[in-house]
Amino acid sequence: xxxxxxxxxxxxxxxxxxxxxxxxxxxxxxxxxxxxxxxxxxxxxxxxxxxxxxxxxxxxxxxxxxxxxxxxxxxxxxxxxxxxxxxxxxxxxxxxxxxxxxxxxxxxxxxxxxxxxxxxxxxxxxxxxxxxxxxxxxxxxxxxxxxxxxxxxxxxxxxxxxxxxxxxxxxxxxxxxxxxxxxxxxxxxxxxxxxxxxxxxxxxxxxxxxxxxxxxxxxxxxxxxxxxxxxxxxxxxxxxxxxxxxxxxxxxxxxxxxxxxxxxxxxxxxxxxxxxxxxxxxxxxxxxxxxxxxxxxxxxxxxxxxxxxxxxxxxxxxxxxxxxxxxxxxxxxxxxxxxxxxxxxxxxxxxxxxxxxxxxxxxxxxxxxxxxxxxxxxxxxxxxxxxxxxxxxxxxxxxxxxxxxxxxxxxx
Length: 412
Known about the structure:
- The protein is mainly α.
- 64% of the residues lie in helices and 0% in strands.
- It contains 15 helices and no strands.
- The relative contact order is 0.16.
């Protein structure tokens, strides 16, 4: 791997590190700055980028066989991950969040320097062609799936009502609606007005740094251990277990001796000796008995140290995160290689470019998607950072494989 690519990866990690420092030292204030930035990206900056991209897209010049060679295996993998996770979901959005984590690559911050540094201008042109549709295709598919699951969870009275609600929520959406608007403008054949084009470009350029900062902020907020489901934002537990021992003070809020940050989901205060409803809810989600989580703790007594019921699930959470990283870095490029070479007959430079696109680390849009639907933010954050670090080792492996068995270049 060239020094330029390694330097780009280090720059990405440095930007994530700055976001982590901002969150760790509360430089952006109290509250939930990660949520604010995620909403800004999802409702302002990403839509601007999508509108401008689709409005300027030249569909007549697109190499459809090349695009199919990439998107068929990628969409197939996303669908398989989604179907595999549906029976195991704890919330309606989890299957789609895991699917986008396993399928959405960092085609801009990492992909463009890789294509330019390894494959030259010709390879970069191929890469940008696929990038022009990458976010549009994947986000629209996953938005449709998650909105359908949410409509089912809300218990629509009939199939027609479910489909109608899904269609409405899918179209009136900060990802899909900008695409529709951009394509509608594209059909007219008119160029974007100069002022509008400049405004959209200015907003769009903020997507990359904002997303990298958001990853760091989320990592500072959730940590590698993640957050407990159902307890609201920030309800974390040191070492995934209860604090050792902390004395409950007279007049303290129930649950404070457990260092539980009360949120609006906790409900009203019930007086000394009561169990915080959010703690009870965590036990329910973990399949445990709420009474076994923590007995009433009158003021002045010592809270016994106990392991939170989700702590026993921590190895599985890490295993699931590592599994998504392996799927993204190893399985997806393998599927693209097989499908593109033996299914669509690609070889040489086009094959190498799209295989390395499949081998890219997890993109920050996966975290924005998770933040949007408030599902698996911690796991998605950790998987994004881990895949970027691991990419330093996996990218040379794929480049060596392609150079050995599927060479590109003048002498190929």
